[in-house]
Design goal:
heterodimer, A: 157 residues, mainly alpha, 5 helices, 84% helix, 0% strand, B: 92 residues
C-alpha cells in the first residue's frame, strides 16, 4: 500500500506541480509580449491560458501533500527532521503560490484586459510577480531534493 | 453558458462518499487497504471543496465557513449556490 501511495504522490507532483512551474515561469514573459503589442488579442489569450493552467493545476496539486502525508505515515517517518522541514517549506511554497503568485496573475490579467490604461502599474507588478514565481520554483525544487537526499534518514535510498 | 463540467459538485460527492466508505469500513471489516486508499482521497476532496469555495465568484465568509464543515460541507455550499436557493422568498 505504501508503494501505491508513493506512486500517486510522485505522479501527482510531476503532473500537477510541473505544469504550474512551467506556466508560471512563462507568464511574466508573455505579459511583456502582450504589453509590447497592445491591441493584439493573441498575446492576451496566451497570458489567459497560462494563468488558467496555473490556477487549475495548483488546485490539482492538493493531491501531492495529502498523499505525501499518507505515504509518510504508512512509512512511519512523520517525525523525521527532513520531512518536517519539507512540510514547512511546502506550506510556504503553497502560501507563495496561492496568496502571492495567483492573485498577482489575476490582477495583471485584469489590467491587460483593460488594455494599456494601467501600463506602468502592470510593469511594476510584473517584475514582482516574476520574483515570487522564482521563489515558488526554488522552494519546491528544494523540497524535491530533500525528498531524494533525506538527510539523516536511515531507510537508505 | 455552463462550463462542461464543474469540479465543486464532483468534489462534494467524493467528500461524502469517501467518508461514508471510511466509516463503514471502520465499523465492519476494517481493511487497512481501504482505510489507506479512502483516507487521502477524502482529504483531497475536503481540501478541494474548501479551495473551490474560497475562490468561487459568489463566495462569502459564511460560505467558506460552511465548506469547512466535515463530510457535508461541499453539499451545503452547493445548496447555497443553487439557483433554487436564491429564488426562495426573502433571499436576493
Amino acid at each position: 500500500m505504501t508503494k501505491f501511495l508513493l506512486a500517486v504522490h510522485v505522479l501527482a507532483a510531476i503532473i500537477a506541480i510541473g505544469p504550474v512551474t512551467v506556466a508560471a515561469s512563462m507568464f511574466p514573459a508573455a505579459v511583456r509580449r502582450a504589453q509590447a503589442e497592445p491591441g493584439d488579442g493573441h498575446h492576451v489569450a496566451t497570458v489567459r491560458t497560462l494563468h488558467r493552467i496555473c490556477r487549475v493545476y495548483a488546485a490539482v496539486g492538493v493531491v501531492v501533500p495529502v498523499f505525501g502525508l499518507a505515504t509518510a505515515s504508512s512509512l512511519g517517518v512523520l517525525g523525521d527532521a527532513w520531512l518536517i522541514v519539507s512540510i514547512v517549506l511546502t506550506g510556504i511554497a503553497a502560501g507563495v503560490l496561492g496568496l502571492l503568485v495567483l492573485p498577482q496573475q489575476d490582477r495583471v490579467l485584469a489590467d491587460l484586459a483593460r488594455t494599456e490604461s494601467a501600463g506602468v502599474r502592470t510593469r511594476a507588478v510584473g517584475a514582482r510577480l516574476a520574483m515570487h514565481t522564482g521563489v515558488f520554483n526554488l522552494l519546491w525544487a528544494t523540497v524535491t531534493v530533500l525528498m531524494i537526499i533525506r538527510p539523516g534518514s536511515t531507510t537508505g535510498v | 453558458m455552463r462550463p462542461p463540467w464543474q469540479p465543486l459538485p464532483v468534489a462534494a460527492g467524493v467528500e461524502l462518499i469517501s467518508l461514508t466508505v471510511l466509516l463503514l469500513n471502520l465499523a465492519t471489516v476494517h481493511w487497512p487497504a481501504v482505510a489507506s486508499l479512502m483516507g487521502p482521497t477524502h482529504g483531497c476532496a475536503y481540501l478541494f471543496v474548501v479551495i473551490a469555495t474560497a475562490r468561487h465568484p459568489r463566495r462569502t465568509g459564511r460560505l467558506v465557513l460552511t465548506a469547512l464543515v466535515p463530510a457535508i460541507g461541499g453539499l451545503l455550499v452547493l445548496r447555497h449556490l443553487s439557483p433554487a436557493h436564491d429564488a426562495q422568498p426573502g433571499r436576493r
